[in-house]
Design brief:
The complex is a heterodimer. By secondary structure, chain A is an all-beta fold. Helices cover 0% and strands 52% of the residues of chain A. In chain A, the strands form two sheets. In chain A, strands 2, 4, 5, 9, 10 and 11 form a six-stranded mixed sheet that branches. Chain A has a five-stranded antiparallel sheet with strand order 1-3-8-7-6, with no helix packed on it. Chain B is globular. Classes of the chains: A mainly beta, B mainly beta.
């Protein structure tokens, strides 16, 4: 099983739609989880951290399911400006990646 | 303003040349990272450093070298041994292994 798996998409949705992404991880000792957003030809930027109890920031909701080893991101009322690639990132104990593992990203395209 | 700065934004290299990419942060972060991103691909770790005067190879360190003489600075040298250096290079830093990473704006390197 790969360390992290994300559906690459693309997810093509109309404005106003609700869309959800999942990201599975294999290291059960992982302790910190994040969602990043990356626009074309730009650097990744933190969208939100993911907490055990789940957390919400405006139209965005992140959840963590430790038992099934995945995190999710829900975007409500999609805007054209939400079009980007969404990267899941987690921080396991130990490992050879400096304690930071990136998914390859899920591409979202919001259409008028 | 605190942040992480990469320079230059665009860099052109002739075959056989070494080039150095700059990464400076004033966030007082201990850990710093270099990633490479190819078109349509995820981030791949080149090198990381968790403390001054110490650094570790990532998955694709061959043909690259780094130094960490100061906490604020983590320059990356792309040597002539790197056969396919054209890519988008991203530098990141983080405070601890539990916190989010912050990225510089990236350097786009092209071999001419």
């Amino acid at each position: 099983r790969k360390e992290v798996e994300q559906d690459p998409g693309p997810f093509n949705v109309p404005e106003g739609a609700t869309v959800a992404f999942n990201c599975t991880y294999s290291n059960s000792a992982s302790q910190s989880f994040f969602w990043y957003r990356q626009d074309c030809r730009k650097e990744p930027k933190l969208l939100m951290s993911v907490y055990s109890s789940g957390n919400e920031d405006g139209r965005f909701t992140a959840q963590l399911n430790r038992a099934s080893q995945y995190i999710s991101l829900l975007i409500r009322d999609s805007k054209l400006s939400d079009s980007a690639t969404y990267l899941c990132v987690f921080s396991p104990y130990g490992g050879s990646q400096g304690n930071l593992i990136f998914g390859k990203g899920t591409k979202l395209s919001v259409k008028p | 303003d605190g942040g992480i700065t990469q320079s230059p934004k665009y860099l052109f290299r002739k075959e056989g040349q070494n080039v150095t990419l700059s990464c400076e942060q004033n966030l007082n972060h201990d850990a710093m990272y270099w990633y490479r991103q190819d078109p349509g691909q995820g981030l791949r770790l080149i090198y990381y450093s968790q403390i001054v005067n110490d650094f570790q190879k990532g998955d694709i360190a061959e043909g690259y070298s780094v130094s960490r003489e100061k906490k604020e600075s983590f320059p990356l040298t792309v040597t002539s041994a790197q056969k396919n250096p054209t890519a988008f290079y991203l530098c990141a830093s983080r405070l601890t292994q539990n916190t989010e990473a912050f990225f510089g704006q990236g350097t786009r390197l092209t071999v001419v």
